[in-house]
Each structure stands twice: as structure tokens, then as C-alpha cells.
Write a structure and sequence with these properties.
The structure holds 2 protein chains of 2 kinds. Chain A contains no helices and 12 strands. Chain A is mainly beta. Chain B is built from no helices and 11 strands. Classes of the chains: A mainly beta, B mainly beta.
């Protein structure tokens, strides 16, 4: 069965600090997809990134970067020079490519607070 | 309207009431989902519809009854709920049920059962 672990529950940083959110996953499939979502106080989850299991290239998008390492089953998310608007709950999720029974499994989420 | 909308945003109901949550997506997607988000717990998938057909019921109690009249609308009918059903109910949609598709979420309905 697939599983996503976000060991950090709450992180508090001061604006402009860098912060890394950890995500460790478990799956028996060789083909799978990893996602990060952001949930601001308004409630809706906002899609940030998708990575498939065959693409281990790290990705950078502005102040956001993602480090995917299959050897450690991790898909960590780093925010550089954090801002108050980054305050939210961040979810890592895993979807196995199991066809009809595939579903998205979420971690418990990490609450990030960025203080001015 | 764009994206995924949900109404009402907040709902307070007694255990004997019957109410319905509504979700509408304006993205032309074919798959829709209901999730339950309780404090300190991961999002729990409740139901999945793909091309209006229910493809997954994740062992959800019968007091929750989904309805998908078309690919754009999804309802969750509630009756004789329990206080432990209080949670944020999120609706999502995706292009189809393929595992590679990102899901787009609505803002949720905050449900309180008294």
C-alpha cells in the first residue's frame, strides 16, 4: 500500500529565511507520481508541482524548488527567502499508476508560519 | 465563475437534519472527488466519479450519499450525521481519473454537526 509521511507538523520561520519541507513516501510500484499542494487559510488546495517516478531532475520555480531522490524515497520542497504569503499548510501526495484503482494519498500536511 | 466552487461554505446542522453540499467545476473535467479533512488527519478520499459513474466508495458510511448528475456537478447528501462528521469537506476535479492528473480543489464546506 502507498503511504506518505510528512514528519514535520509545524514550522515557524522569520521572513527571508529558507525553509525545507520534508516528504517521504512508500510504494511498491515502479511508476508513480508525486505532488505538492498548498492550502492557504481560504481552504482550497492549490496544485504546485507533479513529478513522475522516472524524472529525478530537480525543479526550480521562482523561490520554490523540489528535490526528488528515489534512493531515499523523498520528495522535499524548499522555499527560498520565505514570505508571509507562504504561510499555509503544505501537503505532499502520491499516486500510483495502478489504472482503475489509482488514487491520491496525502500526507498529514505541514503548517508553515512565516513571521514578518 | 472559474475553477471549482462549493456551496455552502459553512454549514451547521443537527444530527436529525438532512442537508446537501454542492460542488460545481467549470474546467471541463470528467472526474470529480469528495474528500473529508479533519483536524490533524490526512485528507480522506470519500468518493470518486469518472464520467458520471461512481468508481470508488472508500468505505464511507451510508449517512453520506453522493450524486453526480453530470460531469460538472457533484452533490453530497447528508442525513443523520454524527458530531464526529464535523470537518472540512473538499470537492476536487481532474481531467479524468488517471493517476498523473493533478486535481483542482474547491474552497470546501466547513461542516459542524451539533
Amino acid at each position: 500500500a502507498q503511504k506518505v509521511t510528512q514528519a514535520q507538523t509545524e514550522i515557524s520561520v522569520v521572513e527571508k529565511e529558507d525553509v525545507t519541507l520534508d516528504c517521504v513516501y512508500e510504494t511498491r510500484d515502479t511508476t508513480y507520481y508525486l505532488f505538492w499542494y498548498k492550502q492557504p487559510p481560504s481552504g482550497e488546495l492549490v496544485f504546485l508541482i507533479r513529478r513522475n517516478s522516472f524524472d529525478e531532475q530537480n525543479e526550480i520555480s521562482g523561490r520554490y524548488s523540489w528535490n526528488f531522490q528515489k534512493s531515499t524515497s523523498s520528495f522535499n520542497f524548499t522555499i527560498t527567502a520565505s514570505q508571509v504569503v507562504d504561510s499555509a499548510v503544505y501537503f505532499c501526495a502520491l499516486s500510483e499508476a495502478a489504472g482503475a484503482n489509482s488514487k491520491l494519498t496525502f500526507g498529514k500536511g505541514i503548517t508553515l508560519s512565516v513571521r514578518p | 465563475e472559474t475553477g471549482v466552487t462549493q456551496t455552502p461554505r459553512h454549514l451547521v446542522m443537527g444530527m436529525t437534519n438532512k442537508k446537501s453540499l454542492k460542488c460545481e467545476q467549470h474546467l471541463g473535467h470528467n472526474a470529480m472527488y469528495w474528500y473529508k479533512q479533519s483536524a490533524k488527519k490526512p485528507l480522506e478520499l470519500m468518493f470518486v466519479y469518472n464520467f458520471k459513474e461512481q468508481t470508488e466508495n472508500n468505505s464511507v458510511p451510508s449517512r453520506f450519499s453522493p450524486e453526480c448528475p453530470n460531469s460538472s456537478h457533484l452533490f453530497l447528501h447528508l442525513h443523520t450525521l454524527q458530531p464526529e462528521d464535523s470537518a472540512l469537506y473538499l470537492c476536487a476535479s481532474s481531467q479524468d481519473k488517471g493517476s498523473y492528473n493533478e486535481q483542482f480543489f474547491g474552497p470546501g464546506t466547513r461542516l459542524t454537526v451539533l
